[in-house]
Amino acid sequence: MRQAGRSLPEYRELRKGTQMLEACRTPDLVTEITMQPVRRHGVDAAIFFSDIVVPIQAVGVDVEIKPGVGPVIEEPFRTRADLARLPMLTPDMVSDITESVSRLTDELGKTPLIGFAGAPFTVASYLVEGGPSKNHEKTKALMHGDPQLWNDLCSRLADIASSFLQVQVAAGASAVQLFDSWAGFLSKADYREFVEAHSRRVLTELAETGVPRIHFGVGTGELLPDMAAAGADVIGVDYRVNLADGIARTGARMPVQGNLDPALLFAPWDVLEKQIRRILDEGKEAPGHIFNLGHGVLPSTDPAVLTRVVELVHEVSAR
User: Fold this and answer.
1) pLDDT tens across 41-54, in order?
2) Which CATH number characterizes residue 133's domain?
3) 80 catalytic, yes or no?
4) Catalytic residue among 11, 126, 191, 239
5) pLDDT tens digits for range 197-242
6) Which of 25, 40, 51, 261 is catalytic?
7) CB 299: neighbour CB atoms within 10 A?
8) Would you tell me how many other CB atoms lie within 10 Å of the CB of residue 44?
9) Are 1 and 296 in contact (CB under 8 A)?
10) Count of domains observed in the chain
11) What's this model's pTM, rounded to 2 decimal places?
């Protein structure tokens, strides 16, 4: 899952003295950080090392990822005039991303690289709130109070996300993931009215590339049918919902990704193994299953446990 390198000592050593966004925009670092979990754990695909605010930084937004806090926007977006601060993303603005993906695909060989972008709603929330939020009150106030401005903002962000993913695909990414960190804070009605269409547009535009599209949100168990309807090829299920329930909620009509609780990596092995086997068994009810964590790797996770998880999944799958 995203940021898998956070648990690796080699990652922490490499990142010393380098800010997150600087690391994301430096091809040497992006290549090495993306490769580290592949070398260490023997996983079946690499996840492109990036962050959901990289493309808005590339178009000129003043954003900083503060340790222990997350993305912080110097001037939050609140009015129609702020839209002028979000120009279209063009490939020349992210030439470093093209270089990083190209280097990675050369080094990975037959191992696929999964590209990455933040969904319009989550990026919009960061822009409107000015940073992470527990309640998303400014976001929801804008969404309901000025629906036209909200939709114009999300439309602009859909353009940026689509362009960012297409740059990665053009450079060699084998699949893409649209990541909606904050969608779980929405009601089903709000998701349908204010969010789904924008995510659908990103996924629809990526369909033309022919690469598989994964759609994942955090705390989105109640939204899974609607997220699945937005047009991805694979639906991610986070750890709060049993994989079997997630499959049922999407009609068992599409492949799923997930969904081991990252906290269980700290449990005794016999407990962890039982949960892994359960998830693999439940995944058989879907047309396809990508075994994965149900959210990001916790930084204090023992890397040896992650390697052992991968080995067990490969062993069971081979049977």
Assistant:
1) 999 999 999 999 99
2) 3.20.20.210
3) no
4) 126
5) 999 999 999 999 999 999 999 999 999 999 999 999 999 999 999 9
6) 51
7) 12
8) 14
9) yes
10) 1
11) 0.96
